[in-house]
Every structure is written in structure tokens, then in C-alpha cells.
UniProtKB/TrEMBL annotation:
Residues 12-78 form the HMA domain. GO terms for molecular function: copper ion binding. Pfam families: HMA. Keywords: Chaperone, Copper, Cytoplasm, Metal-binding. NCBIfam families: chaper_CopZ_Bs, copper ion binding protein. GO terms for cellular component: cytoplasm. The keyword Metal-binding applies. It is found in: Cytoplasm. CDD domains: HMA. This is Copper chaperone CopZ. PANTHER family: P-TYPE CATION-TRANSPORTING ATPASE.
Amino acid sequence: MSHCCSHGPVRSDITLNVAGMSCAHCKKAVETSVGVLPGVSKVEAIVDQGKVNVSFDPSKINLDDIKKAIEDAGYDVQE
């Protein structure tokens, strides 16, 4: 039986370079700030690499809003 039109939710996975994270508090602050956003299904901050991995539904939130949440938490998103 074919379900050609029954796709699961749309999801995008991105990795952002984030400066200023240096400890467990930084990790929690970034993950909490991004994790509460509507449409974000997963967020993982990797402090020692300066990376933040985010899975999100682009129909509910855009990349600029995710970046703003990180910046509002006190960290710099690098392009």
C-alpha cells in the first residue's frame, strides 16, 4: 500500500558556529534558549567545538529566530 502523500513533519538540521561558550552553564543557556522555541525538536550545544546542532520545522520557525535566541542568550553566531 502506497502512502505517497503522507510525509512526516518537515525537518531541517543545521549546525551553527557559536562563539563565547566555555562551560556547562553556557551549554545549558544555549540549549534552553533555543529549545523553547516553537518548531525546534532538538538542540545540542557542543561547547569544546563551538557548535550548536539544531533540528527544527522550517514551517514554524526560521533560522534568523534561532540565531536571535542564541544571541539574546549572550553568545555570538558566526557566519
